[in-house]
Every structure is written in C-alpha cells, then in structure tokens.
Amino acid sequence: MSALLNRAGDFFLSKALASESNRADLHGASVQLSFGLIEYFQTVDRARLLGHAPPNEAIVMLHGALADKSAWVRFARQMGNAYWLVIPDLPGHGNSVADLQLDYGIAAQAARLMEFLAELGIDHAHLVGNSMGATIAAHIAAMTPERVRSIVLIDAAGFEARPSWLHEQVSKTGVNPMTEINNASDYRTMMRVGMASPPYIPGILLAALARKMIGRKAINQKIVYDIRRDLNQTALLKKIGAPTLIVWGAVDQVEHVDNAELLRQELRDSRILLLNGVGHVPMVEAPKQVAAACRDFYTSCARC
Predict the structure, then answer these.
(1) pLDDT the model gives residue 62
(2) Residues 6+ apart with CB under 8 A from 96
C-alpha cells in the first residue's frame, strides 16, 4: 500500500508542477554541454521574435542551493510575455547533471552557466538570482561585465553584515534544518524556516517532495560542502557596475535583512526593495510584488 501511495504522490506532484509551468507559458528544453546535461524552462519571447528586442538578450533566473527551476514558475507567470525568460536547473540540481565528481562552488557554477548561455546564443543577460543563485549572478557580473546588462539579487547568500537566525542555530546545534531532511516533518520545518508563510501542501505531495529531497542526499551534501569554499564574494562587489536591484524579505531567517544594506553600500548603481512579512524566497512568497519591481527596474535603469 505504501508503494502505491508513493507512486500516486509522485504522479500528482509531477502533474502539479507541469500545470504551474504551463500556466506560466514555460516550455521545457535541454542541452548537452561539456560537463553534462542542462534542463531548463524558457518562454517564447514575442517581443524578440517581432524584432522589438535584441535576439541575443534574455532574463536568466538562477535558483538557490538545493532548489530547482520550479522556484521561479509563479514569478515568471507574473512577468508577462514581453521578455525571453530562461530558467535553468543549475548543475547538481533538478533534472540537470548531478555528477559527484563535479565542483559545485560559485566560480565553477558561474563558468558552467556562461557555457550554457553561449550555447543558447545569449550574449547579454539580465541575471536574476536567489540566495546561492544571486551569488553566482554577482560573480558573473564582476568577472564578465560585458555580458551582463543588469542584476537582481534576491536574498543573496555570502554577503554577511550580520548572522541570520539560521546561521546562529547551526553554530549552536550543528544541525541545519534546510539540509537535514529525513521525512515529511523535516521538509515542513525547512519550509517554515525558508518562508514567512509557507503555502499549504497536501500530505501526499509533501511526502513526495520529502522523498525527492532524501533521494538527493549525496549530491546535496556535495553541493553544500563545495559552495562553502567560495560563497563569500564580497571582495568582488566593487567590480560590479551593472544596475542592480536588491530584493530582500524583511523577516528572512536564512540570510539577515541587514545584508541588503551591505550590498547597497558596496554596489555603486543599486537600489533596495524590502518586503515586509516575507522570508527567504520572495519570488515564491510575493511573486506579484517582485515581478512588478523587476518590470519597473528594467524600464527605468538606463543601461537595461
């Protein structure tokens, strides 16, 4: 009976994710690169096809550690169809290559992303990243400024002005509730730490999500180990000249909200949007607000 319930949960989870992506007009695709397969979502950019936007320019969304491209689906739906959106599963995540021999540090992931963009013919990107994805975006903007039109940093990791609740808890207990997932209850705890108001998820889907995370334990441990080596990219911030929108959930327990001000001070062309009552993943918790801010940002920034 339990095996049957597991299969049913996996089926309904797959259907739910497919329905969400279809409503956002996202289409799945994949590409084989030198290091392995990358799966990604993209939209049909009507403005680009009509010649109203450069054919080699896209908004590229980068999820956080141990997440995947589905984190951006609700946000992408709110962005409308005026942009070419490209949303990869970063290596080690989702349905992309998950080789334990690869390095999943920030610099290594940035280099792979650049290969991915080149393969898709994207010469100029508007990078949007959450948590680890924001750190990768900042690294790319600093190291290859000619390829980056703008960046949106959402609750970025690795730029610490003040330790977060999570960092203090891990220091005290040695246990990270964001990575120690052994059952559905642990998964629910992870959601409560990551979000201010987690959405209701039926038990059968919650169990399926937990099983998926448990099945990725080895690769997740490798990712967490690797990103610790170069997660702190603060030294590169002065090199970034691209217009930057800093978005932060005011009650983020994973990365302290004071870190947003550190970024604003270090980035010479930046602005901040703080979202009250929102946690670590604003694009999931408040997709309408974040999408509206991004659209305004792309309209107003001179270099975008």
Answers:
(1) 98
(2) 36, 37, 38, 39, 88, 89, 90
